[in-house]
Design goal:
The complex is a heterodimer.
Chain A (H helix, E strand, L loop, with lengths): L1 E4 L3 E4 L4 E5 L12 H9 L7 E7 L7 E7 L5 E6 H4 L2
Chain B lengths: L9 E10 L2 E7 L3 H7 L6 E2 L6 E2 L12 E4 L6 E5 L10 E4 L13 H4 L8 H4 L5 H15 L14 E13 L3 H12 L4 E4 L15 E2 L2 E2 H13 L4 E4 L2 E7 L3 E7 L14 E13 L3 E3 L12 E3 H9 L8 E6 L3 H11 L3 E7 L12 E3 L2 E6 L6 E6 L2 E6 L2 E5 L2 E3 L12 E3 L4 E3 L8 E3 L9 H18 L32 E3 L4 E2 H9 L5 H8 L12 H11 L4 H4 L13 H4 L17 H6 L4 E4 L2 E4 L10 H14 L2 E4 L4 E6 L3 H8 L12 E7 L5 E11 L2 E6 L4 H15 L6 E4 L4 E7 L3 H6 L16 E6 L2 E6 L8 E7 L3 H14 L3 E2 L2 H10 L32 H4 L10 E8 L11 E4 L11 E9 L4 E9 L8 E6 L4 E8 L9 H4 L1
Parallel strand pairs in B: 1-7, 8-9, 8-15, 9-12, 15-28, 17-24, 18-19, 18-24, 19-20, 33-43
Antiparallel strand pairs in B: 1-2, 3-4, 5-6, 5-7, 10-11, 13-14, 14-15, 16-25, 21-22, 22-23, 26-27, 29-30, 31-32, 33-39, 34-37, 34-38, 35-36, 36-37, 39-42, 40-41, 41-42, 44-47, 44-49, 45-46, 45-48, 46-47, 48-49
Helix pairs in contact in B: 5-6, 5-9, 7-8, 10-11, 10-12, 16-21
Classes of the chains: A mainly beta, B alpha+beta.
Chain lengths: 87, 977
């Protein structure tokens, strides 16, 4: 598997550390309520299809990257720096 | 039998080798299989389950039968395919799975027990009594069945891993692959052409057909000459592309030195490649399938393609009186080749009623071979015709049931092959692997002309996709004979007709699976073990599922195939793991004081990847406790020096550094004065403690954070994530400087006396109070001084650039000794911190909160921080939570043990009455008792009460008093003094 780092270009996945769903970027406000925080910290989708994930270019430039990936075909559709991927 | 004037072997280079202790002679270019056949040694192994005598079935990597063991001791390698093992001077190979000898195998009694060992026998027999399975049945079966064995010794062979990159990877160097590589090379693409065999050329080396008006191997040589002259083309022989992975990644195994005794020191035996290719062309060819008939596994019975390969490539006839049986025109090609080489052809049995006839040999049309005879090798076959059955004497039967395209790699990413009715075979579905085009025989093109054409077309499409221009090429003239197959999977009749030779699976086994309702191909496979041996059923899967389809009244496409998974052919674990053994698996990190510590006989212990001294034994000390107690007393009474460089150090700079730290730490850092240090606690977003450490403010926009040794990497990732992902608005940046600074703790009442002599600046309580920090000159070297303490003593940490670490360590230890102190290690450090109730990852183990460790008030109410919201969940602060306390033994037993559990004094020590657990223990020479840190339900409210510590594993029960976790100097006078 190869991932395109927005800064370094295409690299082997061994250079990257996997974190999980890009939901981690959508941190609620402190007062958002228990359900919102519960969803943010614990609840994750497990889609058969497109998914957005966080990868860290640990063996490279140190960038956190959002990888949009199809879990069925393993196709990587898009990579972007975490700071640009926030909604 | 060697045939004069045939083959691509070097007859001027004879080679002596051994098989089962007997010397044989072959030629340079022979495989073990071709050389043994040349010596008329047909018997090469015994079968897996029934110990039936077996010889070669094929001439390639798909060989199921002729598995041998090569080498001795640690380098012994089992299950080497004789068809792939090149002979060399000194080669010593042994047959497998026989006792006492290959010719006379006592375990062939299994063959007589066959009625009990059929499909699913594991599930039906040996069931009672239950206890017999593990003790009696399984050991016996394991000894009787099996392939080769490992030596049990460490393998001294070197294996290597390597990476390669290219525009186009061409897999297989037969006519298709050569043609594709030639065009891609001429177009200027960066090409890798990989082939599993010693010589490139594929079937062109095994057939007699001309290409472009010349012998196939001559055309191959010309193409290879041109390819070798191109700088943009790499040729990899003896290299099996074993797997297709995501984004154009391929694995490949190169057998670097298996073909020679000349193995230079340090040279790898095998190299495991990871190849990244923008595009790929699969030209893997096709594998011939046998026909199932009674006793079709006798040595001397092999595929027709193998007979032609042995004849044309290696100049060997596998027999003197050969019969040929099959259902395609290939049988006639085989007959012609043998006859023109002067080999006698006894009969040609063509199952097709409309088979072509010949003037040169007898053709039995519409006939089938229905049995064979011979003790350890073929002596005769039985042929069935409408007119009846005849026995024909023969020492070799060449059989063909058609060809299966090698679709394996197209299935590695979940692609499913499609049934081609005309070819009676599965062909790849298009685009099964993104960026890969299947071409030639693996794509169902079975004539040389079609292969060459598809080689050109695939190269053209690939070049276009890469925006490269295709040079003008026309396909050379070549053989273009029609294939004309009539399906024939098995010949009906009694007895055992073999499908999977390696796992001893018969037609009857597959039918029985269907009868017992294992109708799914995946169920049948597992029930019968069809295709589950090391050859993954390359010869047999399609025939097995055709028989299953017939038995279940379905068509082959509806029955479907099992899944081909990597690797294409077996790969040693050593090759997969190359580079990742020993320190390649776990790198070692050494501090600048490492050599000095080892020189003082300090036992080194692992801390993550680091190595740290446990203690520094002095003469006369016989136990670690003696050294540890002395070192603790030394720190409490004089001064001790300890290397603390392994703690993570992260340099944090930027105008928003303070604001950022406020967000990742529970407490406030933006208000910290320049020149001061503060202890910080970091939470995970779920509210539990992640890490702790001190952070010093060296300048208005400059902090340096320390993390725990084990947590350094995770904290760095965390900071980067929080900044890039959550707070990109903050202007701050991070650099790990753990290895740039050597840092030493100098602790004890005399610590300032020691440092005064080394540091130019004045260090008194006014200029360097507790928790002060700043730049200093250490013996003329710019360094940093922090007045912090992990021992509870008046202490400092002094840091210098790592290149001065070793010499500063020597100076510090020398001066400490002059002051009545010295070095201390991890054991003493641990005692010192337990006496003070300081926590480590034994306490912040991922399931404890700030509240649990007694730091609830450190979560600032004035600001948000990572983990704050979730740490306020009611459950995390409710009564009954296990919280940090100290323990002192008060009863008869004085022993405390980490990991032991706590119970109320009168309670039965069972799970339901559990009150908590012990995390850290030590013997305190200062307080002359064992001390423990523990998490106990409502602990801090129970000081003075008694609990019972029970270690169920070691059988220890100790009554303890619950105390404040700070056992020593609770008001902290010493640290300030």
């Amino acid at each position: 598997m190869r991932i395109s780092c927005p800064f370094c270009g295409e690299r082997d996945r061994r250079e990257f550390y996997y974190r999980g769903a890009a939901v981690d970027l959508e941190r609620p406000l402190p007062g958002a309520g228990a359900d919102v925080w519960d969803a943010f910290v614990y609840l994750r989708e497990n889609p058969a299809g497109e998914t957005r994930e966080l990868w860290y270019h640990e063996g490279g430039c140190g960038a956190w990257i959002v990888v949009t990936r199809n879990t069925v075909t393993h196709e990587i559709l898009r990579t972007e720096h975490a700071s640009e991927a926030r909604s | 039998m060697r045939i004069d004037g045939k083959g691509l072997i070097d007859r001027n280079s004879p080679i002596e080798f051994e098989f089962d202790g007997v010397s044989y002679s072959g030629y340079q270019g022979d495989t073990l299989a071709s050389a043994l056949l040349a010596n008329e040694q047909r018997l090469m192994g015994r079968s897996f389950k029934y110990h039936r005598p077996r010889g070669v079935l094929t001439a390639g990597s798909e060989e199921p039968n002729a598995l041998v063991t090569v080498g001795q001791g640690g380098t012994q390698e089992p299950n080497v395919r004789a068809t792939m093992q090149e002979i060399y001077s000194g080669l010593s190979a042994r047959s497998q799975n026989r006792w006492p000898s290959l010719n006379f195998d006592l375990l062939s009694v299994n063959n007589l027990a066959a009625p009990f060992l059929g499909a699913g026998f594991y599930y039906k027999t040996f069931m009672w009594p239950k206890s017999f399975w593990e003790k009696l049945y399984e050991p016996i079966i394991r000894r009787a069945a099996g392939l080769g064995a490992l030596s049990g010794q460490n393998n001294s062979d070197k294996y290597e891993s390597a990476y390669a990159f290219c525009d186009i990877l061409v897999i297989g160097a037969g006519p298709t692959g050569l043609m594709a590589a030639l065009i891609a090379g001429r177009a200027g693409a960066d090409v890798i052409l990989a082939d599993e065999n010693t010589l490139m050329g594929g079937r062109l080396l095994a057939e007699t057909d001309a290409v472009d008006g010349k012998a196939g191997h001559i055309w191959v040589d010309e193409v290879l000459d041109e390819l070798r002259a191109m700088d943009n083309v790499r040729l990899m022989t003896r290299t099996t592309v074993s797997g297709a992975y995501d984004q154009g990644t391929f694995s490949a195994l190169e057998r670097v030195l298996h073909h020679t005794n000349d193995r230079p020191d340090g040279a790898p035996l095998e190299t495991y490649w990871r190849i990244s290719a923008k595009r790929s062309i699969l030209a893997a060819g096709a594998l011939e399938r046998p026909i199932a008939f009674r006793d079709n596994d006798r040595p001397g019975i092999m595929t027709a393609g193998a007979v032609r390969a042995y004849l044309n490539h290696w100049g060997v006839s596998p027999g003197r009186n050969i019969t040929i049986f099959g259902n395609t025109n290939d049988i006639h090609r085989t007959a012609r080749d043998l006859l023109s080489a002067g080999v006698h052809v006894a009969a040609v049995i063509d199952s097709r009623h409309d088979a072509p006839l010949s003037d040169d040999y007898q053709v039995l049309r519409g006939a089938q071979v229905c049995g064979s005879a011979g003790r350890t090798g073929l002596e005769s076959i039985t042929v069935r015709r409408a007119s009846g059955e005849d026995r024909i004497h023969t020492d070799c039967l060449a059989m063909t049931g058609g060809w299966n395209p090698s679709v394996h790699l197209t299935c590695h990413m979940n692609g499913r092959p499609v049934w081609d009715r005309e070819l009676a075979a599965f062909v790849p579905s298009p685009d099964a692997v993104p960026g890969m085009i299947a071409a030639g025989a693996c794509n169902g093109a079975f004539s040389t002309a079609a292969c060459l054409r598809q080689g050109i077309e695939s190269a053209k499409a690939t070049l276009t996709a890469l925006s490269l221009k295709t040079p003008n090429v026309s396909a050379p003239d070549a053989e273009n004979a029609p294939y004309e197959i009539t399906q024939l999977w098995s010949v009906p009749g009694r007895g055992r007709a073999w499908l999977d030779f390696q796992n001893d699976v018969t037609v009857k086994d597959v039918k029985q699976a269907a009868t017992e309702n294992f109708r799914s191909v995946e169920h049948m496979k597992r029930y019968t073990t069809q295709g589950m041996a090391t050859d993954q059923g390359k010869n047999s899967n399609v025939a097995a599922l055709a028989i299953l389809a017939d038995a279940t009244g379905r068509g082959i496409p509806e029955t479907g195939t099992t899944t081909f998974r990597p690797p294409y052919s077996p790969i040693a674990i050593a090759a997969f793991g190359a580079g990742a053994e020993g320190s390649g698996f776990k790198p070692q990190r050494f501090t600048t004081s490492h050599h000095a510590s080892v020189a003082r006989n300090a036992p080194m212990i692992e801390a993550g990847l680091w190595y740290r001294p446990s203690y520094f034994p002095k003469q006369g000390e016989t136990t670690w406790r003696q050294s540890c107690d002395r070192e603790v007393n030394m720190v409490r009474q004089a001064v001790g020096v300890c290397d603390v460089s392994t703690l993570g150090k992260i340099d944090i700079q930027g105008p928003d550094a303070g604001a950022f730290l406020d967000f990742v730490y529970t407490n406030v850092f933006s208000t910290l004065k320049v020149g001061r240090v503060r202890y910080g606690l970091m939470l995970r977003e779920d509210g539990y403690v992640m890490d702790d450490g001190t952070t010093a403010r060296l300048g208005e926009n400059h902090y340096v954070m320390t993390t725990t040794t084990a947590g350094a990497g995770d904290v760095m990732k965390h900071l980067e994530f929080v900044h890039q992902g959550l707070r990109p608005d903050l202007d701050v940046s991070f650099t790990s400087v753990t290895e740039q600074w050597a840092q030493f703790a100098v602790a004890g009442p005399k610590s300032r006396d020691l440092l005064d002599e080394l540091i130019e600046e004045t260090i008194d309580d006014e200029s360097w109070p507790f928790m002060a920090c700043g730049s200093v000159q250490v013996l003329g070297i710019p360094g940093r001084l922090f007045r912090i303490s992990f021992s509870g003593e008046h202490a400092y940490e002094v840091a210098v650039p790592a290149s001065y670490g070793a010499s500063l360590f020597d100076v510090l230890s020398e001066r400490a000794e002059a002051l009545g102190g010295g070095l201390y290690g991890m054991e003493a450090l641990n005692v010192l911190r337990i006496e003070k109730g300081f926590i480590t990852h034994a306490e912040i183990h991922g399931r404890t909160t700030a509240y649990d460790v007694g730091m609830g008030r450190m979560v600032s109410q004035k600001k948000d921080c990572i983990g704050k919201t979730m740490s306020e969940r009611p459950g995390l602060e409710e009564a009954g939570r296990e919280r940090l306390v100290g323990l002192k033994p008060i009863g008869e037993s004085k022993q405390l043990l980490a990991g032991a559990h706590l119970y109320n004094e009168e309670a039965e020590p069972v799970r339901t009455s559990d009150q908590g657990y012990v995390t850290s223990v030590c013997y305190s020479p200062t307080l002359e008792t064992m001390l423990g840190l523990a998490f106990l339900a409502d602990g801090p409210e129970r000081y003075g009460e008694i609990v019972k510590m029970v270690d169920h594993l070691r059988g220890v029960t100790t009554l303890c008093e619950i105390t404040n976790p700070v056992f020593f100097d609770p008001d902290g006078g010493r640290v300030r003094g």
